[in-house]
Amino acid sequence: MTPENGPRPVDLGRFHLVASYSDQIREDAERGKSRIFGLTGPWGSGKSWLLERMMEHLKSSTSDSGDIVVEFNPWIFPDETALYRGFTLMLLGRDALRRKWRHWFAVGIGLIKADASFWFFGAGLAPFTDKLANSLSPIGSPKAMREAIANAMNLRGRRVFVVMDDLDRLSPGELLTVFRLVRLLGDIPNLHYILAYDQDTVLRLLDQTDVSAGDPSRSEQYLEKIVETRIPVPTLTTEQIEALAIAPVLEWARSVDPDLSEGDEAMINLRLASIVFRCVATPRAAQRYLSTVRSLRPQMVAEVRLEHWVLACLLRTFFPRVWELAVSERDLLTGVTHGHISNRDEVVQDRASRLRDRFAALLGDVPIAVDILILLELLFPAYDRLVTGGNKVSADFDPNSSVDARGIGHPAFFHRYVWPDIPPGHVPEGEVRAYLRALPAPDASTGIRRLFTSSPLAVIEAIERNFNFTRSQPVERVHIVELCEQLYGPAGEVSPMAPHSARALLTRLTARTIPWMSPEELGQFWNPTNGPDIAAMNVFRDALTDPGLLRDIPDKPLKGWVASARQALRDRLAERLKSAPSPSLDAPESRRDFVNLLRLDAAALRNITAAQHTAGSWSALDIAGIYVQTRAGNPSTVYGISIDQLERDLGPDLLQSLIDDALSVDVPDEGADALSSRDGIPQATENINRIVRAQFQSHVAEST
Q1: Residue 300 pairs with which residues in a beta bridge?
Q2: b vs e for 505-544, b when ≥16 Cβ sit within 10 Å of the residue's Cβ?
Q3: How far apart (Å, rounded) are the C-alpha atoms in residues 278 and 297?
Q4: CA of 491: how far to CAs of 188, 617, 681, in Å?
Q5: Which residues contact 245 (CB under 8 A, 6 or more apart)?
Q6: What is the secondary structure of 384-428 as a DSSP string?
Q7: Number of H helices, E strands in the chain
Q8: Closest by CA position to 279, among listed 377, 169, 371, 378
Q9: Can you tell me the distance from the alpha carbon of 287 to that of 276, in angstroms, rounded to the nearest whole number?
Q10: Beta carbons within 8 Å of 195's beta carbon, 6+ residues apart
Q11: Is a pLDDT exceeding 70 seen at residue 32?
Q12: Which of 45, 383, 456, 595 has the smallest count of CB within 10 Å of its CB?
């Protein structure tokens, strides 16, 4: 996105140079001797722009005298013979001779056959036409060609300025051929040359020819003999670089984010100023960088930190190999390797140190190599902590805040700096933030549920990043809990909207919210004494029953409220289970109640289980089946059953009954292997029972 009227052009102060350089060339040419001028500057420095303006100025200033300015493109000719022919045709086709003399003069200098009937009206692509190819006669020796062109120039009497741009794009052999042509014709009166090239590139090309003979100084000497007068394109001043590459970025940032604070703008300015002045050497480089920055889609503005975006674009534009390595090592840079690569910090630190060495090797002796290494540490706090101890991150950095989390160093946001749009599996952070601010409006909750259906985990993480648990904000805490309940789904349902991992995160989000709520706020949706049935708030119920949550509540009144709520929940669960069907997959509500009461009061559950089993209401295999999942800690995988844990929870008598029942049923040999897979527990009571029996057999055999 650009400002309404587009970017303002930057005056590089070069317009007055056009007349100055052109007058210098014309004055030197008036001496009569052929002159060779070199307009030099790096790629993208504005050589072509300056050359075009100079050509226009020379044409306008020489129109009265009859002098001619022609452009010759040597790279379109396949070999030396074609180049010489094309050059001669160019001289004939640009009024170097009067039109009626062209044909007989071309015959006279041996350019075409005497009986040819082709007339020349220009030479741009003429050498490549079949008709002209048949008309051309072989050119004689270089000496003969030089004499022929000298005769042509004398006959006409006008000065000709031949302009050749982009000589640095030729191959070494082609470049040497052009220089030989220029040198061959270099002392013909009235014939002058303006050659435009990047001197460093031309010297590297000459080093690859016989001219250098392995000695770079010979290439420099050769070029000095060819080019008599060098006219350098002026380098950019500090003010020009700021106008080309910093001011437009700040203007763009303000246009895409009207809420950009003065502090953020100042930080962008500071970060850019420390690097840009040494990266941007030409107007083209500045434009390439600006194009990369402006490629950010409007819908992505709320997904990234603009400061990190413009700095990441610096790497992408000026240090592409460093950027490619950063992308390939994104896990280490964003810190996701700490959990599964190794438990030893020194191993990860060694990897980070070696990665820094790789970055340094790619940068080589670049003057700002150290600045780029520091920039990488600034962008990736996890990497910074490994290689420096974290001294690049400001004290107020909060990786969980909605602003700081959107940095490139946050693992959930890294790909937003790589993809042109929202990466697959992600959700628009700005959209989630807008919906949260609009709660409890029905459209807001509907919008969040729509996103949740496609990416449950991403939505929950976005809610956590954009909801401040400790301070007041537009969305009330009670609305967050209500939203969690809507996303959680009814008790016991296997809802595609809320897989187990998403439900666990919703429970955690609720548990993080509760300590910052007052009893009055909590009472708005659940009164533990006489409020709605516990099934009305499933996510809150699971937060209360999870032993790992709500352990550290500093506020005593709230702590007392939670304790009373848990007691009420114990009583309600116990009453429900006394009349509930056997807790199998066919009875998901009683199954969930069984698990929750086990977390709150295992002793009370033991008594209820024993009574229900004795009465024949609950199957021993169903009880054992629920323990497989409860004690596994992961319902998608079947693990072994701890006999000791079962005995503590159920007592020795009930445990023996379960074992006897399990051993009384034969299980096929392939049953356990076929069903105890990481594909998940089969959703049928019969299969669960078969797994349970197989697991019991295995553990009983081990214990005996």
Answers
A1: none
A2: bbbbbbbbbbbebebebbebbbebeebeebeebbbbbbbb
A3: 28
A4: 97, 22, 19
A5: 272, 276, 280, 286, 289, 290
A6: HHHHHSSTTS-TT--TTSTTGGGSTTSTTTGGGGTSSSSPTT---
A7: 35, 5
A8: 371
A9: 12
A10: 36, 37, 38, 39, 164, 167, 182, 227
A11: no
A12: 595
129 burial via Cβ count (<10 Å: 0-12, 13-18, 19+): exposed
Please, which pLDDT band fits residue 372 given cuts at 50, 70 and 90? very high
- Structure tokens given for 305: 């930190």
| Residue showing tokens 């190819």 | 133
- Residue with the bigger pLDDT between 356 and 397: it is 356
In which residue are the tokens 């609950």 written?
Answer: 618
Rounded to whole angstroms, how far apart are CA atoms 246 and 484? Answer: 44
Contacts of 382 (CB under 8 A, 6+ apart): 333, 334, 335, 338, 409
Tokens of 17: 């140079």
3-state secondary structure of 196: strand
Nearby residues of 619 by Cβ (< 8 Å), 6 or more positions away:
582, 584
Calculate the average pLDDT of the chain.
76
pLDDT in tens, 206-241: 999 988 888 889 999 999 989 988 988 888 888 888
User: Does the structure show a pLDDT above 80 at 323?
Assistant: yes
What is the CB neighbour count within 10 angstroms for residue 498? 25
Q: Does pLDDT of 132 surpass 80?
A: no
Amino acid 329: pLDDT: 94
In angstroms, the CA 147 to CA 378 distance is 67
Q: How far apart are CA 433 and CA 466, in angstroms?
A: 6
Beta-strand ranges (E) seen in 144-211 are: 160-164, 191-197
| pLDDT attached to residue 38 | 92
> Tokens representing 241?
């670089």
Q: Is the pLDDT of residue 102 over 50?
A: no
3-class SS of residue 359: helix
Contact status, residue 251 vs residue 290, Cβ threshold 8 Å? no
Q: Where are the alpha helices (DSSP H) in 260-380?
A: 262-273, 276-279, 283-293, 306-318, 320-328, 330-334, 345-363, 369-379
DSSP H/E element including 37: strand 36-40
CB 662 within 8 A of CB 698: no
Check whether the bond before 652 is cis (ω within 30° of 0). no
DSSP 99: G
Q: Which residues contact 496 (CB under 8 A, 6 or more apart)?
A: 453
For residues 461 and 448, what is the distance between their CA atoms, to the nearest angstrom?
A: 12
Does 494 have pLDDT greater than 60? no
The answer for 364, left when phi > 0, alpha when psi is -120 to 50, beta otherwise, is left
Looking at per-residue pLDDT, the higher value among 624 and 516 belongs to 516
Which whole-number Å values give the CA distances from 222 to 165, 202, 403, 467, in the listed order?
Answer: 19, 11, 59, 70
Q: pLDDT digits over 643-674, tens only?
A: 566 666 666 777 666 666 555 544 444 444 44
Q: Say if CB 626 and CB 591 are below 8 A apart.
A: yes
The gap from C-alpha 44 to its chain's centroid, in whole angstroms, comes to 26
Question: How confident is the model at residue 195, as a pLDDT?
Answer: 92
- Residue 364's alpha-carbon distances to 319, 367, 694, in angstroms, are 11, 9, 62
> What is the predicted pLDDT for the residue at 403?
67
Residue 473 CA to chain centroid, in angstroms? 31
Q: How is residue 33 annotated by DSSP? A: S
Nearest in space to 23 (alpha carbons), one of 74, 65, 71, 57 = 57
If DSSP codes are grouped into helix, strand and coil, which group holds residue 529?
Answer: coil
Q: Which residue has the tokens 């998403």?
A: 502
CB 407 within 8 A of CB 376: no
